[in-house]
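Q: For a teaching session next week I want to show students how multiple molecules come together into a single three-dimensional assembly. I've collected the sequence lines for a complex. Could you give me the predicted structure tokens for the whole thing so I can convert them for display?
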Amino acid sequence: MANCEIIATGTELLLGYVVNTHPNYIAPRLGSLGIRVTRIVTVGDDRQAMADAVSQALQRADLVIVTGGLGPTSDDVTRDVVAELLGRRLREDKKVLAKIKVRFRVRRVRMPKAIAVQAQVPEGARVLPNDHGTAPGLAMEAEVEPEEKVSLLREPLPVKYGVLQRLVVLLPGPPRELQPMFDNHVMPLLRARGYATPAVCRVLRTVGVGESWVAEMVESLVKGRRDVELGYCARPNEVDVRLITRGPGAVKLADELEARMRARLGDIIFGGENDRLEDVVVRELIRWKRTLATAESCTGGLLASRITNVSGSSGVFMEGIVCYSNEAKMRDVGVRAKALKTHGAVSRPVARELAEGIRRRVGTDFGIGITGIAGPTGGTPKKPVGLVFIALAGPRGTEVRRMICRYDREAFKFVATQTALDMVRRALRVS
Amino acid sequence: MANCEIIATGTELLLGYVVNTHPNYIAPRLGSLGIRVTRIVTVGDDRQAMADAVSQALQRADLVIVTGGLGPTSDDVTRDVVAELLGRRLREDKKVLAKIKVRFRVRRVRMPKAIAVQAQVPEGARVLPNDHGTAPGLAMEAEVEPEEKVSLLREPLPVKYGVLQRLVVLLPGPPRELQPMFDNHVMPLLRARGYATPAVCRVLRTVGVGESWVAEMVESLVKGRRDVELGYCARPNEVDVRLITRGPGAVKLADELEARMRARLGDIIFGGENDRLEDVVVRELIRWKRTLATAESCTGGLLASRITNVSGSSGVFMEGIVCYSNEAKMRDVGVRAKALKTHGAVSRPVARELAEGIRRRVGTDFGIGITGIAGPTGGTPKKPVGLVFIALAGPRGTEVRRMICRYDREAFKFVATQTALDMVRRALRVS
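A: Of course. Below is the structure for the complete assembly, covering every listed component.
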């Protein structure tokens, strides 16, 4: 199965001023063709470093994509270096030069002489048109002699025989130039060259259970199998399980394994690849025609903000109160002064009164109340930092959960709101 | 001058599902010590690829930082591979294991046996404590024999003599674990080991003005100078200006240039490197003993959430109402039905009534009201998607700003809340 290395060039990437998002655009699209990205390298505007990265990539990958460095300045070394490495002469392409001149004429701007270097094309290269900038992309096939490699670890390396057939693609750095070029010219080229092998990818997103537990639940399904890959990606309170099958029968195998994984994971699965927990909850509220209001103290508005990030939430989310002070809890949510005095703001009874109070006041099906100690200060031995009570009041009564979330303030808020959202999700499952 | 290579590991990075932001955190901080990042490599959970990347990096860089792969699952190969490459045995560190056990005990969750592998420490390694996760970081010094390299281009390569002294640092993958560890343990270690060449770095953070304008305001100060670097980093509604001076006299020069930059940029500067706009606003509210309440519609709780992310905000932030429905605007903020009927919810008069209403009701010095159309749906020719009115009511009266923010929903919310926060900041400047 074909693999790819992506080489990005640019000092602004090495200085950390710009985030390299090219892999995030390119890799999933290659994945849909069954091409795996196996390495990503970022080098500066340095000829030796670029030559080294490209020549190594040609040893390891069927497809080598280089982004950036196609500009007109002396920092832009890609075209030159790759042409020299592959032993191709550069010649000025008249069509490309004419198109560049038109771009400047249309903007009524004089074309700096240096720009003409962007019309240099290596022998035998295919030009990939750039509709959003001056430098075209370039695609070249290359035959490469395999170098002998020694394994650095105890296990041996596979040996390669025969000349390696490679495809090298050079793309402009700015995302708004690279992205359309990739979709309109690179993807069709890859399909035409037969790079696509069927691969099936399924993602199950789970909530509330740690990564090692999730892995324990499913890894025996693929143990020792060479035709399946299982991967995990963990964030606070969420674990994605990613299944990839290949070859003939990939779909059938993916269906079978997905069904078995769902049976084992059960209701900790909340959605698929593009689902945030809030998307799923809002979707289910809309589906069951239920409404929601929230009374948050320590999560400070994050729960309301997450819900309102979802398009369509205005049909189901009526109001949120960030009752940061005890006065606000009493005046606007209806928590009794006695409860605050007897149990304290961070307590099971006050969480309950927040949820039931906001539900009654706004007149919604569900009300959520959250009260806790986000930290870093404010904890006591009896009520430590990280303590939080989350209550969900609904038609069938009120549920209150107690948790200790030891994170920095922002992760604490995220995990507490996750739990609140998950409680709504589960309550709707039994609707 | 010392250089660094960053190696990130993780299949989710190669699949393009997660953006690699570690260079963006690490590189500027290394830059302040005069350490340049010269290559960034991303590999998968593949032992051979990891070994290859690390061994090459050891040839090229004084400092090698590896991020990720310190988890407890079979995908996590970093510790093992690096230990094997450097010829170090792994031993279970009792202190580290005890600390991990405490984390699980406090949450009243059973510790999976597999987690114990995170307490394995290579011989001679320094443990870097992790206050936000289970796996500690590790730092090791290594002596490496230089390998002979052949130049791939016409120009020759410099030749190295003698054993290479290297520092290898392994850090956990999740940003909220890596970032504090880097600041609290890696930066001091680098300073103590003498990696810092005197370089002075000043960062001015500005709000509300585009990058090219900011650059125009200050670039003439450094034109043609070799002893100064000026860089810009832009996010929606914010531009950081970064000044780096080196060598003898670096401090004096930085002071002089910073003063001249401040004179030119004026009050678009809101803070320094570690200041978010909300940190500055809360600090100023505390300083001037002023209180604040918010009534947000389209920003859905993000404003309250940003304010409450700041430690100490409970002393100045009293309440926030997310009045997503018109009923909520009327019942809980006091907006008049007539205003809603005559002007519509998204209008200057309603924004004013939101700000003045919440200020009156909660009894704070300042009240903020925000109403707008976040999109993607809901726009009309007269009131397009992106239209937002932001009002600030205070002791000296009410200010209302009208903007059009054409972004996806989440960026719209961020920019609208930025503007609200900046209005408070400016109102406090004239306190």
